[in-house]
Amino acid sequence: MSENKETQEKESGQKMVLKASDIDPKFKYEISKIPGSEKVMLCFQCGTCTADCPIARFDDFYRPRKLIRMAQLGLKDKLLSDDVIWLCSTCFTCIDHCPQDVGIASIVRALRNLSVKERDMPVAYKELASNIRKTGYAYIISGMRLKKRESEGLPSLPKADLKNIAKLFGTTGLSKMLEKVET
Ligand code: SF4
Ligand code: SF4
């Protein structure tokens, strides 16, 4: 961890004004039942995750420590409606460095899953998912690029199992969510 990073952590944006109605006291239990998120209550707010997070370094709003605190406090609606939860790159730096082994990246994933269940997901993610469904790859790879690979003597890309992908999308309900971006 860089020197004094945690003391440099700035809580950005406006001060959050909380009302009793914002708090869902059961939320921390809901979160801690999700695999990978069991240790949410062990966070003692040391700030190491925020200090070392590459996204927090470049974004004034993304603060993993704050997300965990909000989860502990039961600020369910605020968390699930905040697009900031989609900024985590799942690099796992915080997981490696957390002294309490809190599993922040897994908790952020749990928040995203809950957010998708109750609301929606950002269009950019839907577009990536749509590409995966159509081609097996998150990004559409152009014919020109494939030809270039061939001319460079690189092996052809593995063929995706689109049948199984479709099954997975159907089972998880992702197909339904994609209807809006694919029409
Ligand atoms: S999640 Fe871990 S690293 Fe982050 S503030 Fe809590 S205890 Fe510290
Ligand atoms: S996994 Fe997410 S929260 Fe953790 S360090 Fe990486 S970007 Fe930051």
Strand-helix topology:
Elements: H1 5-8, H2 27-32, H3 48-52, H4 54-58, H5 64-73, H6 76-80, H7 93-97, H8 104-118, H9 123-135, H10 143-151, H11 162-172, H12 174-182
Bound molecules: iron/sulfur cluster (2 copies).
One iron/sulfur cluster is lined by residues 43-49, 65, 68, 98-100, 102, 104.
CATH homologous superfamily assignment of the largest domain: Alpha-helical ferredoxin
Strand-residue proportion: under 5%
Give the low-confidence spans: 1-10
Run of helices and strands: HHHHHHHHHHHH
Estimate percent helicity.
Answer: 40-55%
Main sheet attributes: strand count, strand direction, barrel closure: none
Which class do the helix and strand fractions yield?
mainly alpha
Give the cofactors and ligands: iron/sulfur cluster
Report the CATH topology name of the largest domain. Answer: Fumarate Reductase Iron-sulfur Protein, Chain B, domain 2
Instruction: Report the end-to-end length measured between terminal Cα atoms.
Output: 47 Å
Domain count:
2
Count every helix, treating DSSP H or I runs of 4 or more residues as helices.
Answer: 12
Over the alpha carbons, how many angstroms does the gyration radius reach?
Answer: 20 Å
Arithmetic mean of pLDDT: 89
Descriptive account of the structure:
- With 183 residues, this protein is mainly α.
- The chain has two domains: 114 residues, Alpha-helical ferredoxin (Fumarate Reductase Iron-sulfur Protein, Chain B, domain 2); 60 residues, no CATH class.
- 53% of the residues lie in helices and 0% in strands.
- Helix 9 runs antiparallel to helix 11 and helix 9 crosses helix 12.
- The site of one iron/sulfur cluster (SF4) has 14 residues, from helix 3 and helix 5.
